[in-house]
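Dataset card, provenance and construction

Sequences and ligand SMILES were collected as paired inputs. For each pair, a complete structure of the chain with the small molecule in place was predicted and serialized as structure tokens. The example below shows a pair involving NAP. Curators did not alter the output after generation; any descriptive sentences attached to a record were derived from the structure itself.
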Amino acid sequence: MSNNIMKRVSLGGLEVSRIGLGAMSMSGYYNIGAGSEAESIRTIHRALELGVTHIDTAEIYGPFSNEELVGKAIKGRRDQVVVATKFGLVSHAGGGPGVIDSSAANVRMAVEGSLKRLGTDYIDLYYQHRVDPNTPIEETIGVLADLVAEGKIRYIGLSEAGTGTIRRAHGVHPVAALQTEYSLWSRDPEAELLPLLRELGIGFVPYSPLGHGFLTGEITSPDQLSDDDWRKTNPRFTGDNFKYNLRIVEEVKAVASQLNATPAQIALAWLLAQGDDIAPIPGTKRVARVEENTAADSIQLSTVQLERLNNLTSAAGERHDEMNMSVIDR
Ligand SMILES: NC(=O)c1ccc[n+]([C@@H]2O[C@H](COP(=O)([O-])OP(=O)(O)OC[C@H]3O[C@@H](n4cnc5c(N)ncnc54)[C@H](OP(=O)(O)O)[C@@H]3O)[C@@H](O)[C@H]2O)c1
């Protein structure tokens, strides 16, 4: 049954539910608890029933299998979904997955693959996943503008782009959304990015809004993470940083208990309170959690609670390891 009560926001003209669903963890990366394809598909269907319209994936997730999974799940429901996917971390000229390539020729090849795997003839929001230092952003946005004109994509997005790149890109064709990490323990976008996005009328999609699961309070020891869990190499999840960062979770839990809510819901409610141009995409592969996370739409934080959350202890450790930080445009 559909209740469709979720509030909506506009990402540069593209209307989405203000809480979306990130599909990445349905294809590995975070490995606490076994998931299954069937449960992942049920999770997407439950999200749609709860009024979520915004589903986020990428060519590199899997690679490729995550888009296929999303394609399977939205079959017969295409008109209920704003499909967001990303290109630029797979080089189709031979480099393969993990090679940054936003050349016009590569974008042309990438979009055809994504359309096929998603089982659709248009992508609602097509993001460059990481800025390509070897391709001028004007070239990339130029080919994306052509894809808009051809009806293959509806809106253009950037991910982890810096202010200079955003301005240049927006000068070629309107950018609808920037997707970058933003959460209670990753507040960097507040200084320069958010003011620029507001100046230009670009929406903001916070990724990893639950701090890769840390802010939910479910992870209490690094021993819970298997060796192939992506978080094992994230500086915030290792050694003394992990122990130190548990303080942050305790503070989030304290606010959660005042509202009879869960820490995950507080982390999302805090993001929603940052503006009506913000549309986080919490990731989960489980039905119960998508229900929990979408319910954050109705949580109201008081001024005192917001203030307390604004003044949380800062996180220890960079938000990515050195290699991942090095490909972030600044
Ligand atoms: N643009 C980019 O470069 C980029 C980078 C990273 C992510 N993303 C996008 O952002 C989305 C979300 O980010 P993310 O997945 O990295 O991190 P996240 O949303 O902060 O956290 C996801 C993790 O939290 C767990 N979780 C979710 N809800 C929970 C709850 N209510 N209670 C306890 N645990 C919960 C999930 O486990 P289960 O899955 O087992 O439920 C998963 O391990 C991704 O799916 C992806 O679409 C984009």
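Derived descriptions for this record:
The pocket of NAP is lined by residues 22-25, 30, 33, 56, 129, 159-160, 179, 207-213, 216, 218, 264, 281-286, 289, 292-293 (CB under 6 Å).
The two ends are 44 Å apart (CA to CA).
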